[in-house]
Amino acid sequence: MFSDWPSELVPQQGWGDEAAISAFKDAVPWSVGRDFVAGTAKHLASSLGLTKPGPPIRSKIIHDKQLQVLMPALGYGLSFPLSEIDILRDCVSVYCEWLSALLPNPKSSVPAPILNDPNHYARIIINHFYYLFVPRGAQGPDVINRQAVLCHRVLRTLQNIAQNSPCLSEDTWQTLLLFLLHINSALLSPPTVKEDAGEQLCERVLSVLFETWLLACARCFPPPPLWNALRESCQRWRHRGGLIDQWNRINFALSAKLISFMYGPSFPQIKISNEDDMNIIPVNMSRDCIAQVWYRILHIIGNPVDLSRHTVISKTPAFLKYAISSELVIEPSQHPCLQMLPSIFLSAMKGVSGLVDAFLGVPNTSLDNLNQKGRQMSSSSSLSLSSDGKSEDAGRVLSSGRPKCNSLLHLFGPWLFEAALINCNLQASPVTQHKSDGGGGGGPGSRRPVSVFGGESSRKSSDSSVPGDSHTDRLAHLSPQHFQSGRAEALGALCRIFCSKKTGEEVLPVYLARFYLALHQGLRQNDGTVVSSHHDSHASHSSRHGVRTGTCSETAASILVNGVDLFRLDLQGVVSLVPSVLGVLECVLPEGELRAPSHLPVTLLRRAATHVLLSILPLPLHFQGLQVKEVGSNSSERVTLSLLRPQLVNLLSNALQVESDPVNTQMLLGGLLFCVQDAAFCEVMDSISQHNFSTERDHNIMSSDSAHALFVRAIYLVCHRLISSWKSDVNVSLAGLELLSGLARLNIAEQDGLECKRAVKWLCDYIAYQCSRPPRAHSKDLHSTIVAAFHCASVWLVAHPYLLQDKECLATVLEVVELGISGSKSQVKSSDAPRLKHEKELKPASMRVKDAAEALLSCVLSQVGTFPSVCGAESLSSLLDEVTLLRHCNTWGGSDQLTRDTAALHFRYFVAQNSIMLALLEQPLGNHQDPQPTVTALIRGPFGRVVWTMQLRHLPRHKSSAKLYTVNPGRPLPMNDVGIKHSVKPKYFPDSVDRIPLSKADKSIPSLESVILNDEKSALEHDKLLQILDHQVAFEDNVRHQVERETTEYPDVETECAAPPLCHEFQTARLLLSHFGFLSLDALQQSVDAAVPSLVALDSSMAGFARDLDLLDTTNNRTIDTAHVFYVRAGQSAPQDILLNVMSSNTVHPHFLEFLTGLGWMVNVHQHPGWTGHVSTAFTVTTPPQEVIADLNHGGSCFSGRSHVLYWSDALSEVAFVVPSPAVAQQNQGSQQSLGSTSSAGGIVLDPSEKVAAGGGGGSGSERSDSLPPYDADVDAGSSLSSHTSQVSFGHGENRNRKFGRQTSAMSCSDHKVFVVWLESFDDCYTFPANELLSETVTGRESSSWKEKEAVIYVIFIHALTNGLFRIKLQGQNAKLSMAGPLVDGQVVSRRVLGTLVRQTALNMCRRKRLESDSYQPPHVQRKLRIQEMVQKYRYEMNEPEFYTHLFTSPLC
Description:
Number of strands: 19
Strand content: 5-15%
Mean pLDDT: 79
């Protein structure tokens, strides 16, 4: 920088007013001169008032000539040997007092000439002080300490003058700076000798030099010759460790000021812990001056990489002088003090690395951290590498305003690249490692990096080391491996720079090439030995990279720890490093006894290696045909990435077998599940198993990477480790069980039934072992693992129903269910006699375990082999309710406006066993024409709602239409002839009477009708008379028939025995309860064990009954969860802008909509009977208010929950994915289409075409079928299950005691939120407004105490890389059980499995939250409690006779 300027650093012999002092010294003998100087100094010192009490005496020196005599004497006295310490002390005291003339208030003892011209005499005094600092040769430590005390006093005085003097001239400033340079050169230039003055004063003289220099820059900026002198001097002192310490100290202080005004107050500031260092920069120093001084000081020691070259450091006159004067004729580079160069080089590299962190905005960057071993860590990955595995994003985030990578590399790149390539042979030929620089071999391309990085000098220094030479023997500590710590620091800084790359940021290709070359060299070198052997097989990368089994070099460890994000960024060509990195991973991960650098914990190193492994796992299948040439390789051989997949899989499996850290194990489990799923999906997409795999690979099951082989291998490995070593760790156990659940749902063509059976058997053994642990080991965490294991077993059985056809498997499952419910098995061993139920004490491990066992039993009995039902995967319960059933009765003739209250009056309600509610309808349904005794039972239990229609039959169905009786039995008729009977009616008048016309006399008598109509009383009497006549006629007919029967001969029809007519009217509800044995006296009476009888009748006419019935129906029998999906464009942080992104497909990533369809299938919230993401539309099937018109060009807003959502479910859980969008949807006026189809069948019939199959899952391919024929009338809104009653708070107590403080709040686990956020720019994850978006994610299930600011938010960030892969970041996993998988923070996944893995992770997050909650109740327990609550509220209080009487009454009576 200042090489063109002459240096003002003159030789030491011409400094210090040598001429005047020499003249004085030569004029008188030593003894006379000593006495004169001693007397003069003592006299002058006595007048200062320092040794005697009282004020100082005014000086009697009034002429300049007097000072011309006295000052050479005092200067001569400062050169006296240390044995004359008193004289030295007096001379120092006098001069220090006289220098006060430069201060605002000078001392009274200062001579008048000095007061008149203080700068002139101050320069003379400063020059004379030089002799005090000149080393006196070998002295004892006590003598050197006395000299140090005087030197410290002089330095304090000069520093005080520099800080407080208002009258320092430019010449005085230059004299002061030159004096400091000379005394530093006198003390520090010679090679370090133990206990010399330079070693003792090194830190002090350097600190005064730099602090005074900074003051001069603010008040009188030094000219270029002085800067050149400072640079040359510092380069001569580089063998002193104190110089690098002070250099780092000044650099940090200046950088703190520089960063504060360059990037503003929001940028993370450098933490200055020392109060003195905070004030080291003058307040009045301008910004331009700070920038100038910062850059010059940064380069003041030259190239810090020279510290690794002892031959360069020793090329100084002082080292040459020492070598000449030494008794042993040695080279200057052989001085023992150079042994400290490795630590000095490390300190310099830490300083540069710290400056890199400061400009990157790493929080809490400070000078103190430079001395903390193992501190280097990629800030973007420090979250994942934290020792406890918990999230600390707030203190780890890089500043968004950090400079670009290119800017930092322009500034620090030359040093860092050169330091990273120390002692590296960069020539192409591997056999010419020690070839001289002038020799041939290697083209310009291979030699260019050497010249750029200065590698030639480093190679020269290493080449001069010949085995057996005395140089090598004496400086064995300066071998290349001793500089590996500094080299590792440089590599770590480079990794942090490149890992700070922002999305879309371009890095110069030349820097990328140098970086990859440095990484390759750092990964392939171990303990300073370059291994140049190359093998053709891709399986021998570990030996190629020079790493020994179980040992990781310091450089490789630094790359792993600081470069965990290398494969997560869009770095061009980074895939070429995969072979090199894989060799190091094989050294770190599979070894149980790993020898790592002492400053780095093995756990963190393995965690970093695990992160790197997870980021390269998807590469072989993603870049199947890509061939990669290894960096630095001279051969033409290229490695196909797909060939590395078996190696990666084996590495992952071996790492799981030896890993003992819980966090690392969970990460590896997530990677294992990803491998299996990715292989399975890839094979499905290719339609041919192993289509894209190598044909030369080993087909052994332990090395094959097919989906089936991985499936079997994963089951065996995880189950074995669960039983052997993971059972005591709750988090690892939960992660393993989650992995097994994920494996159970995989659709693999070649699934092995024996392996699936073995998995279920292992799960049952795991449950049995956990339950059998001693009481002191039982805890909430232990029971959480048991509950999760029961859930996992349910998933396996539902996904593989054929397992229950195996008697052994079925017996094992039922034994575990019995163990969970009762606390013990009936048969511990097969040879033991079974214990009956009444002989066992009901003592489960906990109520949580009992509930989980009951859920498994219900799943086995009702879901395995039957899921999904004809209702589809959307509902485990029947879609029929009281209103629907009553409308389809053939006797119903009411109006269409049928409400739940009215419909409930037609049913008889009973509760059996205080947990099963029976709603019995005695009217036959309209689609049953057979006149059999029929009852329709709507059964509501803990596990759902089902409808049964039952008929009382005494004959098989095919004979039910035949009549077993006849009206005419077919008896023979009598043959006797009784003759003909003539019926003759006699005539009393002739026929002509009717033809005679009537006369007036005949009409004189009125007719009877006229009389009756005119008189009301006569009409009544006439009616009474008619009744008497009718009765008499009937009586006479009866008598006549009786007489005829008595006189009629055989056969007599009336007296013949005939079959009675059939009964068509039944009280079928009474018959059903009687046939099931519910109407016994014991069942109707209260027992000692139960406060409620086995059968209780409910009064459906009471107010609120229908509302509570709706509340019971809306209490789902599966777990329900909701995840909200957001799309964030680059740079967005405003909630409204984020919501608007999904309005159009033009504003979202092309793969975003594909990802959404991978989360679940689309459902219409108005026709969907399951969970929809909000209680207002959930569990209800209604006619939509209006036809919803949506733009086909939407970007996800269609799934906002207003008309459609994304839905997924299995037999145990439901989840809705909602994409929030603005309240008023902007509809496109162009081509529009109706989403979903309207149905004329009311709320029962759903269009199967609405379901979009995506991402697998139970029931995704099932078709809807209608349970009833279509009904033409529209379903009234009142017939649907009330959607608002589920918002009522639950405050009812539970009648049984539960362990671990379980409360009754059913909504306590609904206060957490799961966000899935798609990021265009990864840096936006740190500014995502999660709390501001909470108002858009209300589901209606939040508890009354829920507050937006207190909600627990789990966020799954997804960032699409340019190579087609996706980077994952998880946020919010702070709780003990919240590290849910299979996704891992920082993992890279493929496009094929993205939707599936995100869905599984969201579900597992919610399950972990429920396991952690003390107040959570499983769905079947909530339903059971609601039934018990209705029993208490609506129970008929009747004794046994009244109950029997009630049975014989009609429901509407």
